[in-house]
Amino acid sequence: MRTGHPADPAAIALDTVDLADPELYASGDPHTVWHAMRERAPVHRQTLPDGRSFWSVTTYRDVNDVLRDHTRYTSERGTLLSVLGSADPAGGLMMAASDPPAHTALREPLSKAMSARALARWRPRIRDLVLRLLAPLADGPLDLAEAAASFPMAFTGALMGLPEADWARLARLTTMAVAPQDPAFQEGGGHTTLLSAHHELFRYFAQRVREVSADPGDDLTGFLVRMRANGRPLRQDELVYNCYSLLLGANVTTPHALAGTVLALMENPDQYRRLLAEPQLVPSAVEEGLRWSSPANHFLRHTVRDTEQHGVRIPRGDAVVAWLGSANRDASVFPDPYRFAVDRTPNRHVAFGFGPHYCVGAPLARIALGIMLEEIVRHVAEFRPAGPVRHLGSNFVAGISSLPVTAVLRDGMRDALAAHGPLPRPEVLA
User: Fold this and answer.
1) pLDDT at 154
2) Does domain 9-429 sit in CATH 1.10.630.10?
3) DSSP labels for 177-228?
4) First to last CA, the chain
5) Among 49, 65, 184, 261, which is least packed, fewest CB within 10 Å?
């Protein structure tokens, strides 16, 4: 989806807007819609043609309120628009779809295993993968979005102890699960794609958990098997849902944040020149890339009781969608929000969510993105477009599925990159 300055928000007829439509994000301009909503209807109700409805909150403050307060907004009825109107079978079982205290019992031990300190030993492997991803730039064009799609699986798969032969299919299945309407990832119709992706993923992890339970290793899946929540081991269904959630989170955030950041640097060459001159800005550039791209586009909640948000009464049981991509362009928090600035500070973005459900994988994503941007700055003097950009057809993931680029490499860097074997191409992996 477009991430630059929006068109005139006054021209938007809010009663005709469909924020659930994946095509809006594939080829439209949701930022213009969100800008209009923040200005004119910060709490907005939409009814779909089939009668289902949901409220949208679009300001930074309202998004944070909804994501923070589980006493008013529950996660246990589902966290994505794809489950709107139906009960989420993972409710209360998967960390992402549970409320405290059950959520806390799952999160606390997992947060320790996923801390930056615990993950430090993975830095050399991630750096090697980054160099292999960038290696084709030594010879010509590279579709950076396609290459990035296989990047997180190469370290998350190892972290979880998943066989390498399974990585390609798992990466595709997670995209099918979040973008079932995107033609590039459909296997059958959209609904069929979603069901088949979930069925295959859950069946895979059920088998994997049975195998690991016999002899838990020191990988993340083994950690979950050994873990205790409120003094008891996790049940089979809890293990399956949480393995699925961890893999999904890794595969839908890092590649799209990477592609979105590189696209922003190409569209704002002055900012890339600044980064080249001041590589110490890499950490703040990573945060700005996360704010700018906001890969996790929304989270769904349901009201626990009649409540009021921004002066609007929302009845008990209604669905409420917090739009993270909108909150990250709120001018009351981010001065000049439609300017990509590698030195932006402070940068209190909500790309990883907010409150109790703040992404448990955020440290891993930051490590991977930081190493990636360090190596890009070290090797690449300039990125140039080599073909049209294609955005993912998904209302959940603000993603890029195709980003062809060529690179002008820095002096002496061509041979250094060429020495690294490239990552397997996604179509070969599939």
Assistant:
1) 87
2) yes
3) HH-TT-GGG-SSSHHHHHHHHHHHHHHHHHHHHHHHHHS--SSHHHHHHH-E
4) 26
5) 49
Give the length of the chain: 430
Distances (CA, A) of 152 to 20, 163, 246, 423, 425: 27, 14, 12, 12, 14
Prediction pTM value: 0.94
pLDDT in tens, 57-95: 999 999 999 999 999 999 999 999 999 999 899 999 999
pLDDT band at 11 (very low <50, low <70, confident <90, very high): confident
In a 13 Å sphere around the CA of 123, the CA atoms on its Cβ side amount to 13
pLDDT at residue 333, as a whole number:
98
What are the domain boundaries of the chain? 9-429
Q: What is each CA distance from 428 to 146, 153, 424, in whole angstroms?
A: 11, 15, 7
- Check residue 313 and report its DSSP letter: E
Query: How does 292-301 read in b/e, with b if 16+ C-beta sit within 10 Å?
Result: bbbbbbbbbb
Q: What distance in Å separates the CA atoms of residue 325 and residue 270, rounded to the nearest whole number?
A: 24
Distances (CA, A) of 277 to 217, 281, 317, 342, 345: 45, 9, 53, 12, 18
